[in-house]
Amino acid sequence: MPSLIPEYEYDVFISYRQKDNRYDGWVTKFVDNFSKELEATFKEDISVYFDVNPHDGLLETHDVDDSLKDKLKCLVFIPIISRTYCDPLSFAWEHEFKPFAANASQDRFGLKVTLPNGNVASRVLPVRIHDLDIGDIALCESVLGGMLRGVEFIYREPGVNKPLTDEDDETKNQNNTKYRIQINKVALATREIITGMMYGHAAKVAAMTEPAEGKPDFKAEEVLSPPAKGNTKGKKLLSWALASVISLLLLTFILFDVLGPFKSLNTSNDKLAVAVFPFQNMTNDSLWDIWQNGIQDNLITALSNSPDLKVRKKETLNLLLQDEAATNYASLAPPVSKIISQKLDIDIFITGSINREGPKTRLNAQITDSKTDEVYKAFRIEGRSDSMLYAIDSLSGLVMDYLVISKMIRELPPDRRFPPVTNSPEAYRLYLLGESARSKKDYATAREMFQQALSIDSNYHHMKLMISVTCMNEGLYEAAREWSDKAYEKKDLVPLAMQILINSNHAYFHETPFEEIRYLEQYLEIDESYPGTYYDIGNKYASLLQYDKAIPQYEKALDLYARMDVKPWWVYYYIQPGYAYHKTGQYKKERKLYDKADEYFPDDPTLVWRKAILYLTVRDTASAGKYLRQYKSIYKKNAWPESALERNLGWAYTQANMPDQAEIAFRRSVSLDSKSPWWVYYLAYFLIDKERNIREGIELSEKALELSQGQYEWIFMDCKGWGYYKQGRFEEAREILEKSWALRRSKAAYDHEAFLHLEAVRKVTGN
Predict the structure, then answer these.
(1) Up-side HSE of residue 172: CA atoms within 13 Å toward CB?
(2) Same domain flag for 174 and 71
């Protein structure tokens, strides 16, 4: 049976090693069940190639005969990825997997195809039946030219890792996966890939969208109390959120603004009211008249499945059409659609046409605002004339995704209404859930949401940056760096504006704040109206201890929010400039700023903490006592560790120039949890930096190094080296500070304070 697309031998090719089929025939059973699932998934018959011959080893005399070469001309290649499959000496690897990847990369479709929903997927659809070693994963990815994704058929229990079967209990499976569900996922993924190929651009039967002329294209802390486990250094005189972590955190907020402000769909109701008009037959062939109502029916059915949309019934719409216009839809004038939409109190209406060019049929569709007559979005679908249902399905998916995402954007605060860089409503919904969790400082949940969004849309590169951010929030520096690098690797695949932001994020780990500022200033040339950009530039200057340059940037950000009459999305738009005012002795401005922040963020723990520091500094003991009691109450209410509370009080007293009280608090923190390297470190650094007891500080830094067991050792080494410097042991100081700096730059991010330590000792010892 030939492939659905001419010139191809099979629709699906199953590649496997006989070793994975000998024990219980797992592969044979999979192919049998998968074939049955395909029958229930496709209207057409799908051809599947599965060779049961027992070839497995590979000798120098072996070669692939012409028949196998022809069979590899397939649409979708499914390798059964196991521990034994990833073997360059196996027949399947050398003569099936590698040749398909190489040949598919050169054919008219390419190895990666655009799916009907706008996402991109590889024509290699791996089915994984074992967890793989890192080396095996790297080997697969070297052939694929990208990450190894696919559908897992892995059953895990303690001490068990085997292929999933239909007899396994998903409640005992640590993956909670069910065999039947995974089979369905493979079939649906296959359908998406084949549909994408049938209507892909390279095959000249692709589904694609066009922006309407002149319209933008729609692609569319003080630390979390208590600090995250595995906390990092932070800044001694700042809370976690005021440290360099926040610089990265806020940098990514402007990733929304990569395509300009989104023109939200107008509606006064919870649901978007939609009318779908019959499509106009512009082919000059009356045989195509049947599709005028056929496309309308399918679109109405598809859109009615969304709980976010309220779709008007076809009968009501067409009755009004008969009153307003001739039954010949080809002569339907645009004003008629608008008149009818207004009669039915419609928010938007969808119109379209059917056109032909030789053997190719084109569907054009437009989404129009019934009140302003503005075209929000135009779509174009091209396909073979004998595959109209596929084309209609593709059009329905594109329209549905656009409208659902549009509604989600409309529900956001005005300053957050930017187009997402994904066409997947589910991926975007997960992103919004992640942002909601992150605003509540639930970073683990946020990271999980972002990772799920990325798994749905592998081209949603924004999520890689957001995962990097949440890793930073949790103190996972090395993971944060890895995710930032992953985004950087794909920067050429995203719009220019996002490329700039990815460069800035990458510079956080590999360059200095000076380069970050340069990238952010480039972004201002694209859009100078977004407050977050100025805020981030302010953070960069603050990280360089240049508070006089940071303050105007923070003030510009707040001024833009005031002009928009919009509340800043979180409290740090006030906390950061407040700290800068504090460092420059502008206490009246700091107090006024916190009073303003109270209107939007009453009882925020970080704001309460900053106010306590302010009043301690100006020696208003009554007000300071009030806020300190409130801050301690917040800790008790949330059952946060007392050791973290004492550490934060130590920071507060340090900033207020009350070293005796600060030392007492830091020592209490250690006494409450002497096994934490962080509490030991904070006391050590305080004793060294403030020259309270340098010798003891060095001893404590050594204890912190021991307790850390190699984790974030550059931070503790910096502390010890700074102690040596304070003792005048300059050569020893330089040796350990140089090593600390090298480790930091290879695993974490630039830290200006650590840099100043190194520069101080270099100056003494000579470069």
Answers:
(1) 11
(2) yes
Domain of 750, CATH number, reads: 1.25.40.10
- For the segment 418-438, what is each residue's pLDDT rounded down to a tens digit? 556 677 777 877 887 787 777
Q: Which positions ≥6 away from 92 have C-beta within 8 Å?
A: 15, 16, 17, 56, 79, 85
Check whether residue 197 and residue 287 sit in a common domain: no
* Strands 360-369 and 375-384, bridge-based pairing: antiparallel
In the chain, the number of structural domains is 5
Domain with 115, as residue range(s), is: 10-203
Q: How many CB atoms lie within 10 A of CB 541?
A: 22
CB atoms under 10 Å from CB of 79, counted, come to 27
Per DSSP, the chain holds a count of helices (H) and strands (E) of: 30, 16
Nearest to 385 by CA among 412, 355, 365, 426: 355
Domain stops at, among 616, 643, 671: 671
Q: How far is CA 346 from CA 37, 263, 367, in A?
A: 40, 18, 12
At 51, which CATH number? 3.40.50.10140
Report residue 479 CA to chain centroid gap: 14
Tell the residue number behind the tokens 């979390």, with chain if given.
224
The region that residue 639 occupies, defined by phi over 0 for left and psi between -120 and 50 for alpha, beta otherwise, is left
**Residue type at 49?**
Y
Strand partners for 357 = 360
Minimal CA–CA distance to 351: which of 299, 390, 425? 299
499 pLDDT tier (thresholds 50, 70, 90): confident
Percent of the chain surpassing pLDDT 70: 80
